[in-house]
Specification:
By secondary structure, this protein is an alpha/beta fold. It is 41% helix and 21% strand. The strands form two sheets. Strands 3, 4, 5, 6, 7, 8, 9, 10 and 11 form a nine-stranded mixed β-sheet that branches. A two-stranded antiparallel sheet has the order 1-2. A hairpin with a 2-residue loop joins β1 and β2 (56-59). α1 (5-17) packs across α2 (20-27), α1 crosses α3 and α6 (116-126) crosses α9 (282-307). The longest helix has 32 residues, at 61-92. The termini are far apart.
Length: 310
C-alpha cells in the first residue's frame, strides 16, 4: 500500500504531541480521526508504530525509524510550498523579495518582550502578507517537534539536526529603581549587595547556564524571583530591589537605572536556531536574514540610547 503524505503528517503530529488530542489540534482534526489515520498508516506498513502508555503515545523501534523518513517528506513539502510562495511573492511584488504566509518564532521572554516586537512590527509593515507569531517561553524550544519554525536561544545547541547562527551580542547590568535606591542602604560596591533585596530568576528554573547571572557576584538568596524577565523588570519598577537587566530592556522601563556599571557588566549572545532540513528554503531563509539584521540594528540602537544616560 502506498503511504500518503497526509498520514505521515498526522504521524509526525502524534510523535510531537504524544497524544491524539494534542496531535489533532496541530493538524485540525478530531482525536478519533487522528486515531484512524494512524491505524491506516500502520495497516499500510504492516507495522506497529506506537505503544500507548500512561504518558501518552510512545514510538516503537519501527516508529523511531519512520520519523526520519517522515521528516524528510515534511521538509520536501515545506520546500515545495516555499518555492510556490516565493514565485507568488515575486510575481506580486515585481520580482522584489516580498514575504508572505505564517512564520512562528520561539524566543526567551526577555528577547520576546523587549526586542522582537519592534523588529517584527517593522517586518510586517514591510511585508503586509506576512504573519509572524512570537512564542515567548523561558525554555529551550524543540524544533524537531515543530514547536516553532525557528528559535532564538542564549546558547548554541550542540546536539540535534540544527543549524545555528550567532545573531548579536548584548549587554546586561545591575539595575534598580530610583524609588528603591532612595530608601535603601548605600550601594557603592558589589559587596554591598548583601544588604540589599535581590530580584532574579528562580534558581531551580534557570533553563540555561548563560542565565545564571547572579552566580557571578556570589548571590545565593533571591527574595523576589520569577522565571520571567518581564516579571523581574516589573518587580524592579515597583521598588522590589536590585537585579540584572538587559540594557536593551531599560528604555521600556522608565525609572530604572543601571548601578555599579564599572564593577559589573556582562555580555551574552543571541543565536538563531533552525532545523537543518529547512536550509535552502527560500522564504524561511530570507525571513531569517531580515530578522537577524533587524535584531542587530535594534539591539545596537537601544544599547546606544542607554549608554547616553547619566
Amino acid at each position: 500500500m502506498q503511504t500518503r503524505w497526509d498520514d505521515l503528517r498526522v504521524f509526525l503530529a502524534v510523535v510531537r504531541a504524544q497524544t491524539l488530542s494534542g496531535a489533532g489540534k496541530q493538524v485540525r482534526l478530531d482525536a478519533a480521526t487522528v486515531g484512524r489515520r494512524i491505524a491506516r498508516l500502520e495497516e499500510g506498513l504492516n507495522a506497529v508504530l506506537f505503544i500507548k502508555s500512561p504518558q501518552g503515545y510512545a514510538l516503537t523501534e519501527i516508529g523511531e525509524r519512520l520519523v526520519a523518513h517522515a521528516e524528510a517528506a515534511e521538509a520536501a513539502m515545506r520546500g515545495a510550498t516555499d518555492d510556490v510562495a516565493t514565485q507568488r511573492d515575486q510575481a506580486l511584488a515585481g520580482q522584489s523579495a516580498g514575504l508572505s504566509g505564517q512564520i512562528r518564532i520561539g524566543a526567551p521572554d526577555g528577547c520576546a518582550n523587549f526586542l522582537l516586537p519592534q523588529v517584527c512590527a517593522a517586518l510586517t509593515a514591510k511585508h503586509p502578507d506576512l504573519d509572524i507569531q512570537i512564542v515567548a517561553l523561558p525554555r529551550v524550544f524543540n524544533l524537531s517537534r515543530r514547536e516553532a519554525d525557528m528559535a532564538i536561544g542564549v546558547s548554541a545547541p550542540t546536539a540535534g539536526q540544527l543549524t545555528v547562527q550567532r545573531i548579536t551580542d548584548y549587554k546586561l547590568h545591575l539595575a534598580a529603581s530610583d524609588a528603591y535606591l532612595a530608601g535603601a542602604p548605600p550601594l557603592n560596591d558589589l559587596k554591598d549587595l548583601n544588604a540589599h533585596r535581590i530580584v532574579g530568576y528562580i534558581p531551580d528554573m534557570i533553563f540555561d547556564r548563560e542565565l545564571d547571572y547572579l552566580a557571578d557576584v556570589g548571590v545565593t538568596r533571591v527574595p523576589l524571583a520569577s522565571n520571567s524577565v518581564a516579571v523581574q523588570l516589573n518587580l524592579l519598577r515597583q521598588g522590589g530591589g536590585v537585579g540584572v537587566v538587559h540594557d536593551f530592556a531599560l528604555p521600556a522601563a522608565k525609572g530604572i537605572r543601571r548601578v555599579l556599571t564599572d564593577q559589573f557588566s556582562i555580555s551574552r549572545s543571541f543565536f538563531l536556531i533552525r532545523h537543518a532540513s529547512d536550509q535552502g528554503h527560500g522564504r524561511l531563509g530570507r525571513f531569517a536574514e531580515q530578522l537577524v539584521q533587524g535584531m542587530r540594528t535594534e539591539t545596537a540602537r537601544l544599547e546606544q540610547e542607554v549608554s547616553t544616560w547619566s
